Amino acid sequence: MEIPKRLILDQTAIARRVRELGARLSQDYRGLEPVLVGVLKGAFIFLADLVRALEFPVEVDFVRLASYGAGTQSSGEVRITKDVETPLTGRHVLIVEDIVDAGLTLEALRRHLAARQPASLKICCFIDKRERRQVEVPLDYVGFIVPKGFLVGYGLDCGEKFRTLPEVYALDSG
Ligand code: PRP
């Protein structure tokens, strides 16, 4: 596989930040038995690293949302194609997302999960990319702020390519 040229986050920086997030979450959630909800597919690598940086046990579940597709003007409608299976009422829920771009996906998911009446609902995202933000979603834990660029690697893909790279790269020349 040809590797994109512009490195944005290397493995050392990613591992350090995931450890820091894990330590913060361990302080904030200890004793609360939270449910971590990973957003497929992109978040599976971040979630896998994050849960192993936690100093307490958690439950893990997943959702999948239908992408509104590249080049399509979004109506803001996001369809859930695989829902969470764990009962969330009264639970402390933490959404784990790989990247927040326009914010539409996360806002739709937040509303969807809030309807289950969890005890708390917070968001942890690996990359906050603000260039194309349309909806302000409250992000409680953020790995990195990256202003712009088409990012791939560490779960992020371009037409399913590059998702498994251990670093984050930008595809544009920047
Ligand atoms: C990406 C990413 C987020 C979402 C962000 O997923 O993983 O879930 O888009 O979009 P937004 O903030 O602009 O609404 P994608 O739909 O590409 O699916 P994937 O995770 O399966 O690759």
Characterization of this structure:
This protein has 174 residues and is an alpha/beta fold. It is built from three helices and nine strands; from the N terminus they run βαβαβββαββββ. The chain has helices at residues 11-29, 44-51, 104-114, and strands at residues 6-9, 35-40, 59-66, 79-82, 92-100, 120-128, 141-145, 151-152, 168-170. The strands form two sheets. It has a six-stranded mixed sheet. Strands 1-9-8 form a three-stranded antiparallel sheet. Helix 2 (44-51) links the parallel strand 2 (35-40) and strand 3 (59-66). The longest helix has 19 residues, at 11-29. It is globular, with a radius of gyration of 16 Å. The chain starts with 5 loop residues before the first strand and ends with a strand. It binds 1-O-pyrophosphono-5-O-phosphono-alpha-D-ribofuranose. 1-O-pyrophosphono-5-O-phosphono-alpha-D-ribofuranose (PRP) binds at residues 39-42, 67, 97-106, 157.
